[in-house]
């Protein structure tokens, strides 16, 4: 019995103006244990974001259901914190006010998170004064301050440059290693998936489904030097092969 | 020398803006003092200025200015009080929008000035009628623009708020309202400008006071100096209120500028 259970979830978007409906997601099952860190890896357009949005309650599945801690997900709620790829800080609130936005956020927790995210001194800055990395750190702090049961991350570092991205990965991993929050992380970046996850679920090209799952047995705490280890490379070779086939299918579909 | 989108310094901006006023008044002076235009049609700037001083000194023009400003602000505030809440409700809730939008879109094209004869019949020639002209002229425009602004709140912000535990009321109050506020204020600034056009039209018919009434009186006396002074007066007040509005907006929403 998983902590988060995705049961036979699929999603079909109705066709607009007589067009054929789009099958975004095939029947998908996935279990996430409490305190686990799962990455969903897939080529762009494979429906991985759709799956995450269904878990968040921002979208409804066409079939199946999502259970969190035994309860069916009907709508978005504070027990599922989310960080988006696009910048979603409220521009009219300062960093601290953003972190305190959540219905369950407490000021001591918020202040502690601001420090952990390296945002001290920027509490009273507006989002537009911050770099992309700082904005995403604030968004992460905002989601964590609300004390969700599970953290949903939709390519949160996708818009960042490589160096910032690597630092953000370490920061998030450090937080997970310390707090053991349940995390469901969507990405198309193989290195990111291997470095962060305990288990990688590989998705097929559209219509997406989970085609294989790979356990990542790298020990914790993980260090960035692991990215060049033979073990890491072996995982990378295997996942590259799996994802390459799907990427080629996806590319063939467009052309 | 001219590069697309290249910013201009603050000093240069002010100097350039002022320079056009100089050009404008220079051309006016040249045309009138030079005798190219008959004084019956267009008085020269100096005469116009002297007339203006006389209007204030001898004819209590400040009272006319006061009543016109009162009418503009009164009608504008009434329109805003109705239009802003309704526009927010329409922007946030699609059934409300579906209910009001077709009618408001239709009503928007009803010319406010064409209502003046009816309004005189309904409300007399008093202040109520003047306020109503401005109200009708602005309210439908504001409703539609506010609905559009609120409706175009970034979807990701709304979704982020949902995942942080906000309910429907929280989404409107804590996301849509603050997100739309600066643009709503800008819309109101724009509409305040239109209100000035309506007030003059309202004062041209059945009014005993106001800048528009003074312009109408001057026409009978064929005093183009007074007419032009009245028009320039409106321009000056409009510019001042616009700057004030802009200044207030930048102070109220520091995050947006």
Describe the protein.
- The complex is a heterodimer of chains A (255) and B (257).
- With 255 residues, chain A is α/β, with parallel strands linked by helices.
- Helix content of chain A is 35%, strand content 24%.
- Chain A contains 7 helices and 10 strands.
- Chain A has helices at residues 48-56, 95-99, 107-116, 132-145, 162-179, 190-196, 230-254, and strands at residues 4-13, 22-32, 37-41, 63-68, 71-72, 80-83, 150-154, 182-187, 199-203, 210-215.
- In chain A, a hairpin with an 8-residue loop joins strand 1 and strand 2.
- The longest helix of chain A has 25 residues, at 230-254.
- The N and C termini of chain A lie far apart (42 Å).
- Chain B is mostly helical.
- Chain B is 79% helix and 0% strand.
- Chain B has helices at 10-33, 45-58, 61-92, 94-107, 116-123, 127-151, 155-163, 168-204, 211-220, 224-252.
- The model of chain B has no long low-confidence stretch (mean pLDDT 92).
- At the A-B interface, strand 6 and helix 4 of A face helix 7 and helix 8 of B.
Q: What's the quick description here?
A:
The complex is a heterodimer of chains A (255) and B (257). Chain A is of the alpha/beta class and 255 residues long.
């Amino acid at each position: 019995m998983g902590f988060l259970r995705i049961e036979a979830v699929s999603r079909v978007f109705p066709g607009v103006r007589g067009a054929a409906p789009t099958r975004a997601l095939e029947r998908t099952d996935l279990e996430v244990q409490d305190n686990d860190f799962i990455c969903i890896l897939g080529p762009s357009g494979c429906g991985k974001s759709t799956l995450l949005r269904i878990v968040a309650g921002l979208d409804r599945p066409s079939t199946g259901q999502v259970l969190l801690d035994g309860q069916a997900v009907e709508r978005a709620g504070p027990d599922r914190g989310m960080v988006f790829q696009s910048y979603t800080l409220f521009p009219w609130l300062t960093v601290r006010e953003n972190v305190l936005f959540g219905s369950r956020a407490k000021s001591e927790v918020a202040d502690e998170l601001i420090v952990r995210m390296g945002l001290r001194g920027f509490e009273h800055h507006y989002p537009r004064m911050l770099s992309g990395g700082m904005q995403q750190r604030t968004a992460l702090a905002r989601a964590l301050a609300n004390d969700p049961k599970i953290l949903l991350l939709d390519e949160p570092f996708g818009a960042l440059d490589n160096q910032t991205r690597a630092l953000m990965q370490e920061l998030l991993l450090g937080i997970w290693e310390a707090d053991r929050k349940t995390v469901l992380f969507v990405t198309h970046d193989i290195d990111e998936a291997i470095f962060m996850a305990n288990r990688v679920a590989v998705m097929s090209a559209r219509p997406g489904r989970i085609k294989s799952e790979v356990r990542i047995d790298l020990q914790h705490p993980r260090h960035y030097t692991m990215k060049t280890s033979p073990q890491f490379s072996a995982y990378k070779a295997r996942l590259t092969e799996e994802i390459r086939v799907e990427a080629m299918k996806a590319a063939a579909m467009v052309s | 020398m001219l590069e697309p989108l290249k910013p201009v310094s603050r000093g240069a901006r002010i100097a350039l803006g002022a320079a056009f006023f100089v050009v404008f008044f220079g051309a006016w002076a040249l045309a009138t003092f030079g005798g190219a235009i008959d004084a019956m049609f267009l008085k020269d700037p100096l005469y116009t200025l002297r007339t203006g001083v006389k209007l204030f000194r001898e004819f209590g023009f400040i009272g006319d200015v006061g009543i016109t400003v009162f009418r503009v602000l009164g009608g504008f505030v009434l329109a805003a009080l109705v239009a802003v809440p309704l526009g927010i409700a329409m922007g946030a809730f699609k059934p409300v929008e579906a209910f009001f939008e077709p009618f408001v879109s239709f009503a928007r094209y009803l010319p406010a000035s064409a209502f003046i004869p009816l309004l005189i019949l309904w409300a007399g020639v008093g202040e109520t009628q003047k306020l109503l002209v401005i109200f009708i002229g602005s309210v439908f425009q504001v409703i539609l623009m506010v609905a559009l602004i609120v409706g175009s709140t970034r979807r990701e912000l709304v979704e982020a708020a949902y995942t942080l535990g906000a309910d429907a009321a929280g989404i409107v109050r804590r996301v849509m309202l603050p997100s739309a506020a600066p643009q709503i204020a800008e819309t109101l600034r724009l509409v305040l400008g239109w209100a000035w056009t309506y007030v003059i039209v309202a004062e041209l018919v059945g009014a005993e006071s106001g800048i528009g009434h003074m312009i109408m009186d001057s026409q009978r006396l064929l005093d183009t100096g007074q007419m032009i002074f009245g028009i320039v007066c409106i321009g000056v007040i409009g510019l001042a209120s616009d700057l004030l509005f802009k200044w207030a907006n930048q102070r109220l929403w520091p995050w947006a500028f």
